[in-house]
Amino acid sequence: MYSQNRKWFTFVELIVVVVILGILGAVGLVSYSWYLGTARDSNRLTQISDIKAWLNSYGTSKNLPKPTDSINILANANIIGYQGYVGASILNQIGYQNGGLDPQDSTYFTYYLAKNEKDFQLMAFLENEKEVAFFPQTYAAEIDYSERIPAVTGKKLGILVEDTTNTPVQEVASLITAGQLDIATTGEIYDSYYSDSDVKSGTGGVLSQMIPNQSCKRLLDMGNYNGSGTYKIQPAGTSTIQVKCDMETDGGGWTRVIYAANGDTLWNAYTTDETITNSTANAIFGMKINQFSNDANGEDLEYMIKVDGTQKWPIYSDVDYQAWDVSMGATRFDTTIYQRDPWDSTLTECTMNGLYHANTHWNWSIVNASGSSCSWYTSGGGFLAYGNPMVRIYGLNEYDYTSVWYITIWVR
């Protein structure tokens, strides 16, 4: 016989319990999915680190093998590298026997090899660090790279992926058909991964920075240098030129673009090479500055100036290319530059009436037209090569250099 006092769950109470259990189950599923993804990510990072070590060991005595299923990476029709996979034959060749496959996708890891067949970079695609879905993703034959986070190791070569999809370029159908990608001429946007935190996105102008020996800065970033001195670089990936590199001052990576002495005739240094032997200096030298810039106005470069071999402050940045045009006459240009002194680790913004060439004697000119202390040459902040032929230097934290023999100008 049933008791009249027995309690039962109401329908509403049952619904509440079901909802709570559902929420707890969903939370548990998300946590479990995140845990599995994290474990796979750890495996990926460990594998590319281990493969890097095996490639480095193999490369001490031999050239590294070219990537499997690779496409050629070009700069102005010249091969600078190859991007594909660390396939089974490569893993076997270098003696790696700990897998070599992505734990979720069962695909080989992306592998970029420089033309010298010594420098390389690897990439894996991680799952986490993004919002986790309520249900684990089911991967089809084609991986959705847009939901992944690229992670790289090795030299800072700049492994390439599509900008919108994260697809590595060796899987892009049009590039597979062509068998190559010319980074200097492409109109498509790609992301170039130098490191996990250093990613450059753009078309030809930006991607040209991938050239491994494009400048002294690239040699520094790649670790392919041994102190300051003379190096060979390829600014456009084509012709090789010999340059002076300063690898110590203010972190290094400086390429010397100008050597000029008192009595030398100055030139439009931004767009013109100058190697004329001058009877006064017998050493006049210049490489056009624009080959190191990827900005229409040249404002992506830093400038360092040395007087008689000694570095002078400040260091300048965001300087318009017209500063180096000796044909402008009395002209104002630009409105903002930045400069940095050794006692101040931050950049000082100089907003002004414009830099200017006050007259035909003001030639290479980083000088404020307003006469303020910021980049005004009489206060020492600016820089001015006076006269043509050059007869004097002003600024650089000294008002008047009256006994200068020569100056050198460096960019990075």
Mean pLDDT: 86
* Residues in helices, as a percent range: 10-25%
Shape: globular
The tally of domains stands at 2
Instruction: Report strand %.
Output: 25-35%
The profile of the biggest β sheet is: 9 strands, antiparallel
Give the low-pLDDT segments: 130-141, 278-282
Which secondary-structure class do the elements indicate? alpha+beta
Helix tally equals 5
C-alpha Rg (nearest Å): 29 Å
Q: What is the β-strand count?
A: 24
Order of helices and strands: HEEHEEEEHEEEHHEEEEEEEEEEEEEEE
- Cα end-to-end separation: 94 Å
Oligomer: single chain
3D structure, described in words:
The longest helix has 49 residues, at 11-59. The chain has helices at residues 11-59, 88-94, 173-178, 204-207, 216-222; strands at 68-75, 78-85, 110-114, 120-126, 149-154, 159-162, 180-182, 190-193, 199-202, 229-233, 241-246, 254-261, 285-286, 302-307, 310-317, 331-333, 336-340, 348-351, 355-357, 362-366, 383-386, 392-395, 398-401, 406-411. Strand 22 and strand 23 (398-401) form a beta hairpin. The chain is globular. The protein is built from five helices and 24 strands. By secondary structure, the chain is of the alpha+beta class. It has two domains: 13-210, no CATH class; 216-411, Gamma Fibrinogen, Chain A, domain 1. Strands 10, 11, 12, 13, 14, 15, 17, 18 and 24 form a nine-stranded antiparallel β-sheet that branches. The chain has a six-stranded mixed β-sheet with strand order 5-4-3-2-1-7. A four-stranded antiparallel β-sheet has the order 20-21-22-23, with no helix packed on it. Residues 130-141 and 278-282 have low confidence and may be disordered.
